[in-house]
Amino acid sequence: MKKEEFPTFLNEQPTVVFGRTTRELLVILVGLTGAYLVWTNIGALMPGPDIGVMIIKGLFATVPLIGSLSWPLSKLPRALWKSGLLLEYSIS
C-alpha cells in the first residue's frame, strides 16, 4: 500500500502581504506609531512651524521608525536578532 504525504507547512510562517509575516507587520506598525507619537509630543514641547523645528522633529521621529524597520526588512539570520548578537555580527 502506498503511503500518501500531506503537506502541512508547519515549519513555515504564513505571509500576509508583501511576503511579510503578521509579526513583522506588527513590528512595523508599532514603529510607525512610535514615530508619530514622538513627532506630536516634540511638537508640544517646541511649537511652531519653523524649518528647524521640523528638522528636529523629523530626526527624533526617525529613530523608532528605523529601529522597527531594521528587523523585518533585514536579511540577517533571525537567531542573531533573538540572541542580541547583532552588534558582534556587524563588527566582524
The arrangement of helices and strands along the chain is EEHHHH
Average of pLDDT = 78
In terms of DSSP E residues, the strand content is 5-15%
Supply the number of structural domains.
Answer: 1
Q: Residue ranges: pLDDT <50 for 5 or more in a row?
A: none
CA-CA gap between termini: 54 Å
* Dominant shape: rod-shaped
Q: What is the helix content?
A: 55-70%
**SS content category:** mainly alpha
Could you tell me the number of beta strands? 2
Strand order of the largest sheet: 1-2
**Count of runs of 4 or more consecutive helical residues:** 4
Radius of gyration: 20 Å
Question: Could you describe the largest sheet, including whether it forms a barrel?
Answer: 2 strands, antiparallel
In short:
The protein has 92 residues and is mainly α. The protein contains 4 helices and 2 strands. The chain has one domain (19-91).
